[in-house]
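User: quick one, fold this
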Amino acid sequence: MKIISNESKNNKTEIIVKADDKKWADQQAKAYKALASNLNIQGFRKGHVPAEVAKSKISEQEVLSRALKPMIDELYRELTSSKEVDNKKIIVDALNIDIKELRKNDLQICFVFENYPEITVPKISSLKTKYTNPVVEDKEIDFEINRMTKNDWMLADKDSQIITKGDMANIDFEGFLDDKPFPGGTAKAFDLEIGSGSFIPGFEDQLLGLKKGDKKNIFVTFPEDYHEKSLAGKKTKFAITVNNIKQITKPNIDNEYAKKFNLPNVNTLEDLRKHIREQILEMKKLQARDAVVPLISQELIEMTKISYIPESLLKDEKNRIISDVKNRAQQANVDYLKYIDTQLGHKSEADFLKNVDETVRKNLVLVLAIEKLIEIMKIEVSEKDLNEYFEKLARYYGTPAEQLKQTFATRLEGLKVFLTQQKLFDEIIKQIAPKI
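Assistant:
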């Protein structure tokens, strides 16, 4: 292959290449052989037509046409892997292919690529998103130990039958929001340890002093950060019925008791508390990360400047989103238009497609910004990173790491992209977090 010209204009790069004469001749020979083997001529078996007869039945144009596609594919591979072409400046999926010369002794193809846009990303120090390093309080560890020892509690009827802190109250409750029952707000014969903090603030305190058989309406306000958004910050009413009250006798939590959980490197109560602290901290870090990454992403979308968004990327991303929605509609056994109405809230396909166009642009700005930051910050996934990831999965699923590596063998490149993006956001979080 020889590059004849390489010109960039109007956000596109046009590269004209000439095929190697020998390779082009070989490709034509293969094409001729394939055409000859498929000839159907009366008096001859298929694939056994004499060469002289075959030659008279197969035109040069037929040979060139059949040889063209595999030759273009080979030229494309050679071109996009050539050191003469900077793949960082072009989108390697050719937008258009133009045949400049198609002759027996000369094949010239023009490949038209879209150029990567010029991307200016914000400095990490300019991001306004803040990150708070999670901390674990002793009471959270106490709560978890309390939960872990629950199977060893001794319950006995309480003589006074009046609820006090530390009792186990068996209750029925029904929750109301604006005087209407809300989903998940009702339970029968529910065992609640009073003072455990299992329920939202104020709930358990209002049960103190009640007796078996008592009924009471209590009023509580859900926290502003409650996971169910329809209840977050809302004042609600609960109708309570006390069914029974038990006195709890809990086991003595000492070094010997700590060993019964058979946790790695846990031989004392102090070890157990350290193990639980690490587990809670890891969970809190994941939750904090999940909360802050969308905020960082939104800032990147708003602050990144891009010279233009390539048409090929717009088209591919739009097709991906629409295809995904159609697949979900099919899996739900719902008509596509009905699905975008009932599930996505779009009254017409035009309204849905307008929303898709907006989403596509935001997605692509974010993707391009992430790619640029990875390049600038030199983020790479090492063999060590991969091994640590598989070891972590192995501990979580109880599956040997080597087995997981085999499972991911065909998806390794996709996994590397995922881990590279994770490392990028971890580095951003590290930079915006307060220094300890």
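User: anything notable?
Assistant: The CA atoms of residues 86 and 194 lie 68 Å apart.
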